[in-house]
Structure formats: C-alpha cells, structure tokens
C-alpha cells in the first residue's frame, strides 16, 4: 500500500531535494560544514517546510505526529 502524502509533506520533499542538490553541488554531506549556513535561503526554506509539515500549516503551535 502506498503512502499518501499531503501537500505539506510534498512541499517538504521538494525543498529537501533542492537542499540535497545544493549540498552535492558544494561537495558537502551536511549544511553544518557550509560557510553560508546562517544566511542560506535554501536551508531556511527547507526548515520552514519541515515545520509546516509537522504543524500541517497551523500557526498556533502543536504538531501532528
């Protein structure tokens, strides 16, 4: 049975692919070794997508695990 992924999970998957592509381009296995870690929009977009996936877009807090 295939897992149905909601819109937030799908967006997170897209942002993860972009993040991994960036890491691969720079020859890195992690953002922690990147000089741009604190100013990187790609990483910020991924972190935001993870948060939205966990909270299902609700801004008042709480996560749906």
Descriptive keywords:
single chain; about 60 residues; mainly alpha; about 50% helix
Structure explained in plain terms:
With 65 residues, the protein is mainly alpha-helical. The chain has a domain at 1-24 and 39-56. Helices cover 52% and strands 0% of the residues. It contains 2 helices and no strands. Helix 1 (7-25) runs antiparallel to helix 2 (41-55). It is flat. The two termini are 20 Å apart. The model has no long low-confidence stretch (mean pLDDT 88).
Order of helices and strands: HH
The number of helical runs is 2
Strand content: under 5%
Please state the CA-atom Rg, rounded to the nearest Å: 13 Å
Distance between the termini: 20 Å
Largest sheet: none
The percent range for helix content is: 40-55%
Uncertain residue segments: none
Q: Round the mean pLDDT to the nearest integer and report it.
A: 88
Number of extended strands: 0
What form results from the Cα inertia axes?
flat
What structural class do helix, strand and pairing data support? mainly alpha
């Amino acid at each position: 049975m295939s897992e149905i992924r909601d819109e937030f999970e799908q967006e997170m998957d897209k942002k993860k692919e972009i993040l991994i592509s960036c890491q691969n381009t720079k020859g890195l296995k992690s953002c922690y070794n990147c000089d741009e870690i604190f100013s990187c929009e790609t990483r910020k977009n991924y972190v935001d997508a993870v948060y939205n996936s966990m909270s299902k877009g609700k801004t008042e807090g709480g996560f749906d695990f």
